[in-house]
Amino acid sequence: MSVALETARLLLRPFKQDDLPAMAPIWADPEVMRFIGTGETRDAAGSRVLLDHLIVHWEEHGFGVWAVVPKGDTTPIGWAGPSVPDFLPAVLPAIEIGWLLGRPSWGHGYATEAGEASVAFAFGELGLDRVISVIYPANAASIRVAEKLGMAPCGNEVHPGNGRGLRIFERFADAADPPPAGA
């Protein structure tokens, strides 16, 4: 399944191999990656492996994180969407809504906009009744996004790859709609 979504300002589409030149510098940025996975950056080979993983996730599950592309452009500025958080077995079975943007795209509301579309897709097209987000406690910006998406803290875990604490946020399909972005 190859599903694309549109929001007011963004196209969310599955990744393709041609996205590597745009995404590799984002994945190599220590400031971007400090709250992603184990917090390590990706070199060229690691970026290829990660992109392949994102594409295979779609093939295996029929959904995955999308490339986030501003309308009128063709170059991804990051990712957002649902995925299976298999790196953290303690939360399974669950579907995580996640987001990552390159630094030039921070502070524009793109993560919230893409997150809202991702939550709607998870509850609508995927028929889920609960989604989570896994966030490092020091990542105040992502915690704000999760709260804008109507998520609430529901627990803590430890990242098995680096031993750092994680906060788990959740939202149920029958929860009231979150406040409008920017509220």
Blueprint (SSEs and pairs):
Blueprint: E1 5-6, E2 10-14, H1 20-27, H2 30-33, H3 44-61, E3 66-70, E4 78-83, E5 96-101, H4 110-123, E6 130-135, H5 140-148, E7 152-158, E8 165-172
Antiparallel strand pairs: 1-2, 2-3, 3-4, 4-5, 6-8, 7-8
SSE pattern, N- to C-terminal: EEHHHEEEHEHEE
Uncertain ranges: 179-183
Using the alpha-carbon principal axes, give the shape: globular
Alpha carbon gyration radius: 15 Å
Number of domains: 1
For the record, give the distance between the C-alpha atoms at the N and C termini, rounded to a whole number. 35 Å
Short summary of the structure?
The protein is of the alpha+beta class and 183 residues long.
Give a verbal description of the structure.
The chain is an alpha+beta fold and about 180 residues long. It has one domain (about 5-170): 3-Layer(aba) Sandwich (Aminopeptidase). It is about 30% helix and about 25% strand. It contains five helices and eight strands, in the order ββαααβββαβαββ. A hairpin with a 3-residue loop joins strand 1 (about 5) and strand 2 (about 10-15). Helix 1 packs across helix 3 (about 45-60). The longest helix is centred in the first third of the chain and has 18 residues, at about 45-60. The relative contact order is 0.15. Residues about 180-183 have low confidence and may be disordered.
